[in-house]
Amino acid sequence: MDAVLNTKDNTITIKQELTYINNSSDTLQEILLNDWANSFSDKTTPLGERFSEDFLKRFHFAKDDELGSTTIQSISASSGESMLWERYEGIADIIKISLSTPLYPENQTIINLSYQVKIPDEKFTRYGFYKNGDIILKHWYLVPAVYDKKWQIYSHKNLDDFYAPPVDYQINLTLPITYELTSEFDQSELSSPDKTRKIIRIEGASRNEVNLYLEQENSFYNFKMNGLTLVSNIEDNELMPAMKNVASLRIINFLKDRLGPYPFNKILVSEQDYKSNPVYGLNQLPDIVRPFPDGFQYEIKQLKSITESYLEKTLLINPRYDAWIKDAIHIHLMMAYTDKYYPNMKVIGSLSDIIGIRWFHAADIDFNDQYFLGYKNMARLFLDQPLTQPQDELVKFNQNIANAYKAGIGFKYLEDYLEDDNILADAIRDYYNQNVLKLTNSKKFETILKNGTNKDINWFFDEFVQSSDDIDFTFKSVKKRKDSLEVTIKNKGNNNMPISLSTFRNKALISKTWIKDINGTKKIKIPNDEIDKLVLDYDQLIPEINRRNNYKNLKGLFNKPIQFRFLQDIEDPTRTQIFYIPEFEFNVYDGITIGSKFYNKTFIRRNLSYKVTPSYGFLSKRLIGSASIQYRHKIADYDLFQMRYSFSGSTFSYAPDLLFRRFSPGIDFIWRPEDLRSNESRRLSVRNISVFRDRDLENPVSTPDYSVFNARYRYSDFNLKNVTSYLVDYQLNKNFGKLSTTINYRKLFLNNRQINLRFFAGAFLYNNTEKDGDFFSFALDRPTDYLFDFSYLGRSEDEGLVSQQIILAEGGFKSKLDTPFSNQWLTTFNANTNIWNWIYAYGDVGLVKNKGVSPKFVYDSGIRLSLVADYFELFFPVMSSNGFEMNQPNYNEKIRFIITLSPQTLIGLFTREWY
């Protein structure tokens, strides 16, 4: 390649000669090229769609000069004849070149290409041009796809899974003389006729990728070690260069011992690469609060980055469809390194020594336990996916974190089962040395490992790797015989994986036995040498979804002691944990409430959860609070996949000196599609709400106590650009029956214009509630919330600031009109669109029908400030059925607001791109 960089418009003009050798046994009629630079060309490319799915707004709202592209000027054969080419099947980042004559095995052809690449802004992927003028080039040129019986092609989706064959490169890059070029290739400077520019020759053989770092001030440093040069800009300002050198040398020697020698003379790791795939945890905190000893932070970052580069540049495995084997080796090596050099390191570092914190179970968790916790988080959320699932089909948390962790801890499980640490280590070393710089796959590793052991390990490759079935073993029964114990072990999962059984006497380990072929239940007999405790997976190396049921005490009343803990903690399988925490809330009737929440929820979700929150209201001077219990039952991987059983009760004030008590049992049926990345969901909720209210002697109501049967069906499908949802709600009471539907649609157009549409229609099937006024009626702007579902700051207030709170339910109007309720039927249509950024114009129209009165047409309109969409918004009425509202008295009382104080709801804004 002859490539000329223009830093004024961030383009590279390229003339490229590609010599393609057909190393396959097939005759080729076409050659396919990866053109991932063109993935940034517009919002409709596979990359643009991926950003939308992940709720990443910066690409959709980017300016044209921030995008990237490839402009092809010519593609010709060595004879100079133009060659036919096209975007393969219309895909933006794959090019198909048709060959005029077939390319037979072992033959070669030369293709000349002339094109210009527009470099994208780095804010999308951390690679591209920076505002300070620096440029990092990745996926910036045309390169052949891998041909392995078929063309292995797929689009750029910001997954860091580029796949190219080993290529010999010679690149002459012309760039401004003020720039420094860093790469892991051999570099030399050629003479240039232009004194303001220089030409750098870049050469390397059998490389699968060319990443270039162009900086005006070089941030990289070099360490030479045993013939290999480490090039890095990963920094730790507290560490002396000599200590960095020692740490880096130790990592390189460890990898050389565990894998084999690195085949090139330079290895490059960058801060950008690390940030794209970091070690998640407390080590990401700012230096001032980072609880790790000097050097560890730097060393763990270098370990992650060097190991990844070591494997990525030498093991040519299809990273989209066979990534698990490289992930398993990567995480296994990191765990082995930490075990060797930092065996006592805790996941919270030095915080585990602080009085108060060290009482938590989190203080006992080893640094390597974070890999199991990352995987278990997804398993408990019912989002676990097979290791063989293609990378672009994984939930983001799985793709970035959990599946690599699952692969690594799977190797620890396998290593424990083999009962000889050398077997797996030798297989990894043999696999690396036999396949370095070759196209390879996980099947070759499987063959090597099976040849190294006499144990049956089909379960690992056939079940652990290829399925997402939960691993969960427990004791069904233990019976004492004369000189033995008859132990029945139950496999609660749908698999045939082994489990270890350990026996104890007076806290001393007596034996450890591996048990296989547990289909449902299995009985075994073990000697009864005064055994007083049995433990499944005592070393906690098996990635079980539930370790709390792995203990069986043969003496005493309880399997596990009860433990009270202040604040939430990591789950301790050896204890029955109950957490408590102060809780503060506010409403205008109880005032500030203070209480204590007792609950069993750990940082990773449990299937059975409960909480009890007794509180005291300082204004009402009453004991109030709530309690709930919920059980989640997974019944399938998709379609109708989960059922939730729940019961809740609460008592709070609903008016001055008046309490309500609410009790609600319920069951939810939840559906999801087979594609777990899809945000499509369906839920049928069936519940009964019973409400008991204190009588108000000064303002008596006819029905202070009531019970409502409620069935709701919800459908939703959303991403950054499109939101579609609807709700069908059916309510039944002895005095009324209601049926309603709500349909929402939100569209973000390519020109960044957004429109939000909402339709509501509700009707009484029968209504005998006249004696209760409009308490059970449909509301135009502010539902009475007789089911007590909404978080009103003051649900009974008709004036004052809290009465201006609006919850977009039922009619969805923002203005307070003369006909705010309907006791027969109500139909409304709400719409808004953005004027500029977060400023919207809104309008609502509707028909309100009350008994004995003709339908009344109503409308309102105004300005909406969407500061945080659906969570904090302000509405300023302009025109409505009341007239021109801005000229009317007390306009400040007409302004409405949406506010969400629930931390869990707000957290969803930040976690939605991960799950």
From TrEMBL:
InterPro entries: Peptidase_M4/M1_CTD_sf. It comes from the Bacteria. This is Metalloprotease. It comes from Aquimarina addita.
